[in-house]
Amino acid sequence: MRIAAFALITAVALPMAAQAQWLNAFDQLSFDAGLGASYGPGYLGADENDAEPWFILRNVTLGEGGEEKQGFSIIPSLNYLGKRDAADYDDLNGMDDISRAYELGFKLSYVSGPFTSYTHIRKGFGGHHGVVGQIGTRYRHDFGDRLTFWAGAELQAGDDEFTDTYFGVSADEAVTSGYDEYSPGGGFYEANLNLEARYMLNDDWAVLGRAKYGRLLEDAADSPLVKDKNQPEISIGIVRHLNFSF
Prior knowledge:
Number of strands: 10
CATH class: Mainly Beta
CATH topology: Porin
CATH architecture: Beta Barrel
Order of helices and strands: HEEEEEEEHHEEHE
Largest sheet: 10 strands, antiparallel
Helix content: 10-25%
Low-confidence stretches: 1-26
Number of helices: 4
Mean pLDDT: 85
Radius of gyration: 19 Å
Shape: elongated
Number of domains: 1
């Protein structure tokens, strides 16, 4: 299972970072928290686009002067996945509903100048109980004091339980939906490229925009539920910038 590689990397990297006194060596923990709207696939693999709420919770380790802290850091990682109602999509007729999912874990990152490399590991609750991970890199550029731009590439992974929840077809669902039974394995399920921009309206509030192009991979892409492997999405929202000093 490829996601095990994330756990192995983390298990090796964390003690090394702690020994070098890199972990938790930051002056502030900064969050963007807010609400917006996203327009993209109605569910993972859909070819129909829908507008959905975008619950924004982003964090970054900051040092003195508001610059990103250089070197290694570890901070919380949170994520939210909306519910999937089969009745909303003809292609899901006969499939079970999936309730909202919440994911909690941590992010290990390394910042070198404007570049950040990172790994997320999270455990799901609610709609799925799998373990998910992300590995990626991004470039940051500040246009003055108010406008910040990011460009990045990312691979997303999930264990068997995650992929089975969102891409699998159980024996019972095969009977009611007409799809063949399908049990995908865990591993990398999506690669994406993304562009993001934040414009600070004042010291506390900002407008955040994101454009993402995703491509489903491997067992996830082969699921009979997937009608389009391409998964583009655009989002815009309002966030409150919060700083916690230590």
